[in-house]
């Protein structure tokens, strides 16, 4: 990712920064630092969603019986162009959790099958794999410990070593599937997915890429990537409404993949099965159209450069204020989110052991939030950049976290 200078300056304010606030819904005084958790959408995207919503209400039969399927197909074809794959390889689903469940609960795991995951995997996905373990005979999880900072080569090496160690056991089991985050949640790290996919497939292992954070954050070329399965949330970084994600299943696997909720279109083929999810509101998924339109006026490169550069510089600013460091020294492992260390002296402080304390404290006292977590024996916060933020926002967040941590450290000393 290039980092051309796109941050606003007085002489060259550019299209992004605080002037973008008017396109979003934040009230005066609310600055959003956690876009990564739930995303948010623009006013124009809401209008687009309401267009679909109104159309459904004006004539429910015409909508469901005649118009819905072509409308979903159009959005899928726009996404296919965006991610370089065939329209027929894409299915719209509600979220990444559903997409991963769709794949894991469709595949027929046999006794002796193993599922490989990284220790940094997202909790819902880890639990879904655990569910497969719990409901199948002799299906186990192989977890690869990942403690950042690690270079891309070290990550690939660790995963390959886990595969080789497993093979060396010669216990009759085989790693059937690997689930790899493209961008992990906490810590937020961009992983070397292409080398991981190539390496894992060379051992005959299928690869499911959890790309929950990817669309809208990194360029995607699914033909080049050649993953066996890929899922990404559009409601995080693409700016569509929550409840919109897209699952990629290449044609070679489509006859074995079915929606998590089976309905009347069962066995009607991949497109038909995934076009009807039972009676519900499809306007959130269709709002992807509005999100793509909003982005087009600036171009993907401009959005990506701005957010990446803001994340890299924001991380440096906050680390300086806190007297600490960002987790990854490699800029290419940073997308739009960075992890900065919080200088807590006592990591067993009861208040940081219950996340609710910090959630309430940050929201109630400061009207802002960035999630915190333990990794590698240290305490970190994950911060999201976004086109409505500027560098001085990170100065503010850094000062708030400094005050919070200073207070906790004073309590510890007392
Ligand atoms: C890496 C990763 N995978 C999966 C998910 C689950 O996404 P959703 O809650 O939209 O299903 C998240 C959510 O933040 C995530 O960060």
- Assign the CATH class of the largest domain: Alpha Beta
Rg over CA atoms? 22 Å
Number of helices: 16
Give a list of the ligands: pyridoxal-5'-phosphate
Return the string of H and E elements: HHHEHEHEHEHEHEHEHHHHEHHEEH
Q: Helicity, in percent? A: 40-55%
Morphology call: globular
In round numbers, the mean pLDDT is 96
Count of separate structural domains: 2
* Beta-strand segment tally: 10
CATH topology of the largest domain: Aspartate Aminotransferase, domain 2
* CATH architecture title of the largest domain: 3-Layer(aba) Sandwich
Strand numbers in spatial order across the main sheet: 1-7-6-5-4-2-3
Largest sheet: 7 strands, mixed
Distance linking N and C termini: 47 Å
The CATH homologous superfamily of the largest domain corresponds to Type I PLP-dependent aspartate aminotransferase-like (Major domain)
Organism: Modicella reniformis
Pfam families: Aminotran_5
Protein name: Aminotransferase class V domain-containing protein
Region (Disordered): 1-20
